[in-house]
Amino acid sequence: MDVPSDFRAEKSSQKRRTKAPKSANPPAQAPPTNYINDFNIQSQQPFMPNLGQPDMFYGGSAFNSSSYGDPAGQFPGQQLLNDPVASMAMQYGHTLAGQGKVLVQKNIENYVASSRLKYYFAVDTAYVGKKLALLFFPFTHSDWSIHYNQDEPVPPRYEINAPDLYIPVMAFVTYILVAGMVLGTQGRFTPEQLGTQASSALVWLIIEMVAFTLSLYILNLSTALKYLDIVAYCGYKFVGMNVSLLAGVMAGNTTVYYGCLIWFSLALVFFLLRTLKVQVMPQQDHDGFTKGAKRSLYLILLVSLSQPLLMWWLTSYVMSFKSAV
């Protein structure tokens, strides 16, 4: 049916909006807001580990291996090594250290050369047996000279008159052990006694070497002796000390001890007199006259006669008491 014209709806003056065409890239939507329910704090972003970015608790950056040290990826100190001035200084330091090492080795070689030590320990079983027999019975020995081979002394294994350090060193160690054993049989052994006996014997040996060397220099005597020769000759007394202590312990009285000590003292004095007489030579003038013969004789007598006194001094304390029952 027809609607009256009065009742028709009036047309709107506004135009209908047209729909916008769909775009290929829709606009980005705002990220959803997250809330922390416990504290009711709004967070713009979810919590993520902080890798190299500052956060609210730590103002710096987290550790990153790629940014450690130099920005170019160098380890600390590499830039200093690449510096030419620093490299030249380090090279100079290495050169100076090498020169110092060579200088120290040369100075050590002048005083304690390995070749010299090898010479004094160039012994064998036959030499040791013959030398011990010579120390106890030197009265029948006739030739006391030391033979040379192309200005070098013959090694001890081929020359019985040559000084060695094998017998003195072994006798020194044996003396410490024998002294400890004797003190143990008397009930007086303590660990400190071994150190006391060793240090006392070593100090007296050093004093002998220094006194002998200074005497040769002060008296202006020419000699072929070296300081290791002096140590060897002064160290032979430990052989007689060991035999005297062992004999006294086995016999159980001091009479046997003093008898062995006196015999070896006489033998050692005779041995040193004949040996040092060849080594310590008096000087000769242009006229053919010798000078310094008395001085060398006095020095030889002093060194030889001091050995029995030291033997008694280093062993009398050990044998001063009777053995404990």
TrEMBL record:
Keywords: Endoplasmic reticulum, Golgi apparatus, Membrane, Protein transport, Transmembrane, Transmembrane helix, Transport. GO terms for cellular component: COPII-coated ER to Golgi transport vesicle; endoplasmic reticulum membrane; endoplasmic reticulum-Golgi intermediate compartment; Golgi membrane. Its main location: endoplasmic reticulum. The chain crosses the membrane at residues 165-186, 198-218, 230-250, 256-276, 297-315. Coiled coil: none annotated. It is a multi-pass membrane protein. Signal peptide: none annotated. Residues 1-33 are annotated as: Disordered. InterPro entries: Yif1_fam. Belongs to the YIF1 family. PANTHER family: YIP1 INTERACTING FACTOR HOMOLOG YIF1 PROTEIN, YIP1D-INTERACTING FACTOR 1, ISOFORM C. This is Protein YIF1. It comes from Biomphalaria glabrata.
